[in-house]
């Protein structure tokens, strides 16, 4: 090989490597995602993970750099059977106010039917998620239960407020630094409260931070360490471990189990595993099928089947090609088996295989 050939080869290799790295980075978008789940856990855009047990209305994230606010996402939790669940997500985009509850969605106080496509906003619901996607550069996904995820366009970097932090790419700064002093999560969370008229909700006491910290060091809680460790660090999750650090999720799992009166309750065992699985998918990994009929089982409507890592493109299952629930990566959800197709009204039925061949079929 001549010297010029050698350098050409090196250059080609370098270009290929850079292209691969860029493709992986494009696939891995957890740095533009903020989420909340389980027993009051939050992960900011910049990667801080903390617990905030507030039950009032809070600003999860809003655009706060300019005098004109383009969007805001507010949430409220309430306790159901002793466990915190998100019961309301309110999304404001310019002058549109979407009010999402488990069963009803309203726009500026009028109940609307889903799917909704208008004014650069798509609002859809599948068997697992309600998803709002807005052209201003915002995606909100809620599982109707404990978990909300917000993905933002990178143009909002360093110009957000709320429980999701400032999106400046630096953990702790300036979320947990206020007037040059470090603040605890409860003080930080209370600052994000949205005050409403006639709101008699009480903020959690800032002393609860010490109580939460003390609980983490408690012998009773420490006992859950090996259980959580075994679940999250098992070989089945190997493709996730290289993409998403499992350690904070192990700690969150211990906090979930520890805060439960009945540690075999699905909420205690499953919510952080479910979040780790979602984060893994967003990072471009392939979470294992970790749910079983006996462990954190998920049921699906009709004859759909639950998959932890399936293609969310409902178009493969419907007769229309308009769904925006498609993502670059796979995610959890209910999917149509090959011999079923979903009609546009959301009902599924068996179609003759010959007829189905005219449409895209879902590989099992
Ligand atoms: Ca930050």
From TrEMBL:
PROSITE patterns: VWFD (PS51233). The keyword Kinase does not apply. Residues 1-23 form the signal peptide. Residues 32-202 form the VWFD domain. The keyword Oxidoreductase does not apply. It holds the Pfam family C8. Keywords: Disulfide bond, Glycoprotein, Signal. InterPro entries: Mucin_vWF_Thrombospondin_sf, Ser_inhib-like_sf, VWF/SSPO/ZAN-like_Cys-rich_dom, VWF_type-D. One of its GO terms (cellular component) is extracellular matrix. This is Mucin-2. It comes from Merluccius polli.
């Amino acid at each position: 090989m001549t010297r010029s050939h050698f350098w050409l080869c090196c250059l080609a290799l370098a270009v290929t490597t850079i292209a691969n790295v860029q493709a992986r980075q494009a696939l891995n978008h957890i740095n533009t995602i903020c989420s909340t789940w389980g027993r009051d856990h939050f992960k900011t855009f910049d990667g801080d993970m903390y617990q905030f047990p507030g039950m009032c209305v809070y600003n999860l994230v809003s655009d706060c750099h300019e005098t004109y606010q383009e969007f805001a996402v507010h949430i409220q939790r309430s306790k159901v059977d002793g466990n915190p669940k998100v019961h309301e997500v309110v999304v404001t985009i310019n002058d549109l106010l979407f009010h999402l509850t488990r069963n009803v969605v309203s726009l500026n106080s009028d109940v609307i039917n889903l799917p909704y496509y208008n004014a650069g906003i798509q609002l859809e619901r599948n068997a697992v998620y309600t998803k709002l996607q807005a052209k201003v550069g915002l995606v909100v996904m809620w599982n109707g239960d404990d978990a909300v995820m917000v993905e933002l366009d990178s143009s909002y970097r360093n110009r957000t407020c709320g429980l999701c932090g400032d999106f400046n790419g630096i953990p702790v700064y300036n979320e947990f630094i206020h007037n040059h002093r470090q603040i605890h999560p409860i003080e930080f969370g209370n600052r994000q409260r949205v005050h409403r008229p006639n709101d008699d909700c009480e903020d959690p006491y800032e002393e609860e931070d010490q109580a939460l910290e003390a609980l983490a060091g408690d012998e009773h809680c420490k006992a859950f360490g090996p259980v959580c460790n075994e679940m999250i660090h098992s070989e089945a999750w190997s493709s996730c471990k290289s993409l998403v650090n499992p350690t904070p999720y192990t700690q969150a799992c211990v906090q979930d189990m520890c805060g439960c009166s009945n540690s075999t309750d699905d909420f205690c065992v499953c919510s952080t595993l479910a979040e780790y699985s979602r984060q893994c998918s967003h990072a471009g990994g392939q979470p294992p099928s970790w749910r079983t009929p006996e462990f954190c089982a998920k049921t699906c409507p009709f004859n759909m089947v639950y998959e932890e890592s399936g293609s969310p493109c409902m178009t493969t299952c419907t007769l229309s090609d308009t769904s925006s629930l498609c993502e670059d990566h796979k995610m959890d959800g209910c999917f149509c088996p090959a011999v079923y197709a979903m009609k546009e009204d959301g009902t599924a039925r068996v179609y003759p295989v010959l007829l189905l061949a005219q449409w895209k079929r879902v590989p099992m």
